[in-house]
Design a protein that fits this description.
Helix 8 links the parallel strand 7 and strand 8. It contains 15 helices and 15 strands. It folds into two domains: 120 residues, Enolase-like, N-terminal domain (Enolase-like, domain 1, 2-Layer Sandwich); 230 residues, Alpha-Beta Barrel (TIM Barrel), CATH 3.20.20.120. By secondary structure, it is an alpha/beta fold. The longest helix is centred in the first third of the chain and has 19 residues. The strands form four sheets. The chain has a seven-stranded parallel beta sheet with strand order 5-6-7-8-9-10-11. It has a three-stranded antiparallel beta sheet with strand order 1-2-3. The mean pLDDT is 94.
Amino acid sequence: MATERIARVDVLPTSLPVKPQEDASRGLAQQHVFLRLETTGGVVGWGEARALPSWTGESVEAIDAALRNHYLPVLLGINPFARNSALAALDEIITGGVPSARAAVDMALYDLQGQLAGLPVHELLGGKRRDKLQLSQSLRADSPGAMREAARRMHDAHCLKVKLTGDPGLDAERLVAVTEGAPHVEIWLDANQSYTPTRALGLLDRIRSVRRVACLQQPVAGDDWFGLARLRERSPIPIAVDEGCLNATDVLRLAQLGACDLVVLKLCKAGGLLELVRAAETARLCGLDVLGSGLTESGVGLTAALHVYSTLNLRLPPQLNGPQFLHRLCVDGLEWSAGDLRVPSAPGLGVRVDEELIRSLALDL
């Protein structure tokens, strides 16, 4: 095990088909970059980065270039267990600008480590707290009537993450419609930075009597920490931060400012599995709850997040919506039961990656 070295690195940009009936705004496909690491002994580890420039600033071309031109030379020849030194070397080459690409490297390294050690990734992180995770379902913004009907179809969900658009009156109507359609489901509101602080107060006044709303996520711009703090002082609903919180350092600063009650974790912004755990532990020490989310990753990124989230105490079921929006997850071996997703127990990520499918969907950059 100690003599294994990474002998081959493949960077595979792809276009994955989506389900337009779930959300037409996503188009017909979305772009991902898969990273395949193979050791001298033939063991293969996988990572994944979702390309969404509007979120992380990383286009598929940027991720591909970072992995192929800058990270590949560092990864070739290293011991897969030399994670810390490898990532430190990568951070000297590119500082903070490609967190999704960095996270893909970390996924692949942990996948290799687990397979070489004969352990699932969650055990490398201290062990899972539970065998299965419930998942939140995403409900896109639409007319109140359409959202009521969609909520009725999702009434068996454990939690609905409801999208808002920055119109206090219409968003309040949407929320009421959702609670009518799914009267027993917990609600996770996501405003996606669509409000100003004062306008958000109008929304809060309208929905303060609606029960089962667990939190309001990112009502204002991600960089408006002071506006968020002022809004939290007057909010009857717990405030969560997503776009405004990337890592453990941000968690600490937000807590000191009193700007939020919860922080949203994502592998794509944390830049790695251990960094995600550090952010969660910092939140716990600061008295903040944590939520788990993703960026509609396919099976590789979803499974990596599943391993991490199984080790944490999340306030709500995580939103890993690849199964909801993608036609295929590019992996086999994930086990579903009554809407719950079982944490893999096989070594590494514990799933079988459909390499043939990934290569068949490859982009020619």
